[in-house]
Amino acid sequence: MNWEEIFIALPKFWDGALLTLELVILACIAGFIIAIPIALMRASQNWWVRNIPLIYTFFFRGTPLLVQLFLFYYGAAQFDFIREGFLWPVFKEAYWCALIVFALNTGAYTAEIFRGAIQTVPHGEVEAGVAIGMKKHTLYRRIVLPRALRMALPSYGNEIILMLKSSALAYTITLMDLTGVTRTIIARNYLAIEMYFTAGVIYLLLTFVFIQVWMRLEKRLLRFQNV
Amino acid sequence: MFDLQGFGPQIAFGAWMTIQVALGGLVIGLFLGLLGAAAKLSAYRFLRWIGQLYTTVVRGIPEILVVLLVYFGGEDVLNRIAESFGYDGYIEINVFVAGITALGLSFGAYATEVFRGAIQSVPIGQIEAAIACGMSSPKVFLRVTLPQAMRLAIPGLGNLFQVLLKDTSLVSLIALPELMRTSSIAISNTREPFTFYLIAALIYLSITCVVLIAQQYGERWANKGVRQVRT
Q: Using a CB cutoff of 8 Å and minimum separation of 24, what contacts does A47-53 make?
């Protein structure tokens, strides 16, 4: 192990880690915003409302993230109307493509997690809400969603960790995230093992810190459970 | 229609390679998963520690990093070892072997947890009964523990296989000619990235569908003789 070289490269790793974090946090926020309405639609009684968003979740959950990234980043340029359209500044930037694809991808997984949670909200609680005379949207805002989101916390935490790990694919479309930075460093000093090892340790640290924070959050939001 | 400007056969070959990589990763992963579960449930603290280290590390770092580490890192290690023995040629690792090893490693880490949970939920009384009948411990495992654990493990393993199938696209980054790679090659000739990546996506979707159906059959097979709650 060449510790000296690892130490020299640390500031670059730090820059990469920052971009990785930025991508993951923004993608998860956007994904959450996408997931709520999709999950509500997926839990609907109406066949059409339930199954139209299925096309979206099925596509994004059934294909590799790499294909989705390439389809967006390289694929969009195939069409003249996109290249000449007003959205081209967005599609031509690797950063925006990565962000959009990550958000849509995690949104699809999150939507299915939330749908499962919404469907496990005890029926008695919903009936109680109706009995008090709540309107449908008050019922969702006050009872169904707070209850479902709390129950989804453990699986949602797993999904965020998966997103953190998948974000390493951003380097394939030229972004300098943690993995991208690692590869450029290796191209200079040829120390593949040392540098991948360091990147692995940083990813492990990020996951570890995230798990600690998330466990705190779970404990706080689910404190009614372990009375 | 399926000629795809002459790249149809190449894409089909890529899809077949993807299936081979997925199955290869599955075999290695199942083996590692069983080994990991055995280590985690072992009576020896050292083995339990090894199992814990394996699952924590591999589940905590990105799959793509595992692939790159096994391919480039593995080559690096082999060459350093060879060098210390006085061999001065360059050793190259076969991409296919590196690919299925890397995917198997990450599948195995998740499968360890699935197997551990499944084995732990086999009632201890049954294992004691088998021992009381005079069965040797491999026989207890093969005849009592495994068939019952399998029933509980299949849904979890099926989900993991779906993930593995999508992760096979990562080995295109170490130039293994699977579906993504052959699509990229076709694109560099035809300049139609959207068309070819969309076709690749649809092929992945159809393989996923086949796996889903196979999983349902597998569950039905493993559950025969078990009364199920129907609502």
A: A53/A111
